[in-house]
Design goal:
The protein is α+β, with helices and mostly antiparallel strands and about 100 residues long. The chain has 1 helix and 6 strands; from the N terminus they run E-E-E-E-E-E-H. The chain is globular. It starts with a strand and ends in a 10-residue tail after the last helix. The relative contact order is 0.17.
Amino acid sequence: MILLDSREGEPDRTGAAAVFEGFFDFETGDPRRSGGGIPRLRVGDERLWGFECWWRVDPARAGLTADDREQLETSKRLLRGLLRDAKRSGAFRSLPART
């Protein structure tokens, strides 16, 4: 199940059922063992890499639950706070122009 689709400019697949295809090499698409590759999911005819979305196993096919929504909102608030703190600390300083 796709909990949150984090891709920009793509159709939002949040809440969609997905099939876990396994772990794959990102560059070649060759199958890999767990820990040696990136998870890939299929949503209809489309494939998503595990880092493009937040997902979880849904064996009961319960769909997007109220708990999922609450945890996603909490995660978004935490991420916004981390980004704000990083900007304040200067972690995202502009790089000087190259001459």
